[in-house]
């Protein structure tokens, strides 16, 4: 029977998004790497356009952050027990933690903020949270520079382990990307996630040894083991070993690598499964 005039032919139509195999999904992401690089650069330039000092704030922000935390926690509260160079210790902790925090919180809302783009163009949606992580990585680089200058200025000597920092940055970027992909999909289904994440990171801030030496203050074996399975704590310990010297355990290194692989693998697969639901 012929179709009535009121019936629509929906053959060939599908929800916006990328449809294909997992490998073709990754391939399409790689093809759009120029977008992942250029958009963050434009975003960073536009962030400080309305301020008097402009992009100088990308350097001033980390400098002021170090000064505030070192004053409050090192001079006033005196929580520097077990740390030889507290200013450098705080600098590494604050900036490494901040990179992850900003990446996940900003990236978790990337799908919601770009709903119009999602509804109008077909592309791998993972492009959006990955671009958010890239933006925060580029914003983190001035802080990384300030961090090394701070370490040198406060007596830390250059060492061969500094050569491992680029490798650490790659692992850190992959870790952030995996967590951000998970947070981005979760936020699209449960918008309350965006209000919960700041509290989660506040708990992690004080529960990862960002501002104090866990070895000096935590003596309970059970509590110490909880720190050891915290990937943020592992990340900070390895960065501090590479930059400031000291010791790092094999368990912390393996733990970070396992967490990174787990988060990224689960994140990219789980995110892709929800591809057709974003923007609906």
Secondary-structure map with pairings?
Elements: H1 22-31, H2 33-47, H3 57-76, H4 86-108, H5 110-113, H6 115-120, H7 127-153, H8 165-189, H9 193-206, H10 214-217, H11 221-228, H12 231-244, H13 250-273
Short description:
It contains 13 helices and no strands. The chain has helices spanning 22-31, 33-47, 57-76, 86-108, 110-113, 115-120, 127-153, 165-189, 193-206, 214-217, 221-228, 231-244, 250-273. The radius of gyration is 22 Å and the shape is globular.
Explain what this protein looks like in three dimensions.
By secondary structure, this protein is mainly alpha-helical. It has one domain. Helix content is 69%, strand content 0%. It is built from 13 helices and no strands. The longest helix is centred in the middle third of the chain and has 27 residues, at 127-153. The mean pLDDT is 86.
Rg, please?
22 Å
Q: H/E order of the elements? A: HHHHHHHHHHHHH
Helices, by number, come to: 13
Structural category:
mainly alpha
Question: Taking all residues together, what is the mean pLDDT?
Answer: 86
What's the total number of strands?
A: 0
Query: What is the end-to-end distance?
Result: 33 Å
- Number of separate structural domains: 1
Biggest pleated-sheet summary: none
Binned strand content = under 5%
Shape by Cα distribution: globular
Low-pLDDT parts are none
């Amino acid at each position: 029977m012929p179709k009535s005039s009121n019936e629509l032919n929906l053959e060939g139509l599908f929800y916006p998004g990328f449809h294909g195999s997992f490998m073709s999904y990754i391939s399409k992401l790689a093809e759009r790497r120029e977008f992942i690089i250029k958009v963050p650069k434009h975003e960073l330039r536009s962030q400080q356009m309305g301020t008097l000092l402009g992009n100088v704030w990308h350097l001033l922000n980390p400098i002021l952050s170090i000064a505030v935390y070192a004053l409050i926690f090192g001079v006033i509260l005196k929580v520097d027990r077990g740390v030889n160079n507290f200013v450098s210790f705080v600098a590494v902790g604050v900036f490494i933690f901040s990179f992850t925090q900003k990446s996940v919180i900003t990236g978790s809302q990337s799908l919601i903020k770009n709903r119009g783009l999602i509804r109008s163009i077909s592309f791998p949606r993972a492009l959006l949270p990955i671009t958010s992580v890239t933006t925060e990585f580029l914003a983190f680089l001035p802080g990384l520079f300030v961090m090394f200058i701070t370490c040198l200025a406060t007596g830390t000597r250059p060492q061969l382990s500094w050569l491992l920092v680029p490798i650490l940055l790659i692992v850190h970027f992959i870790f952030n990307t995996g967590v951000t992909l998970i947070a981005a999909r979760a936020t699209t289904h449960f918008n309350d996630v965006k209000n919960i994440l700041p509290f989660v990171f506040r708990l992690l801030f004080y529960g990862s040894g960002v501002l104090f030496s866990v070895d000096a203050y935590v003596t309970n074996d059970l509590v110490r083991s909880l720190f050891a399975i915290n990937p943020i704590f592992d990340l900070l310990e390895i960065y501090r070993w590479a930059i400031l010297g000291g010791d790092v355990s094999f368990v912390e290194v393996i733990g970070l690598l396992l967490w990174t692989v787990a988060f990224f693998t689960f994140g990219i697969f789980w995110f892709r499964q929800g591809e057709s639901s974003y923007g609906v």
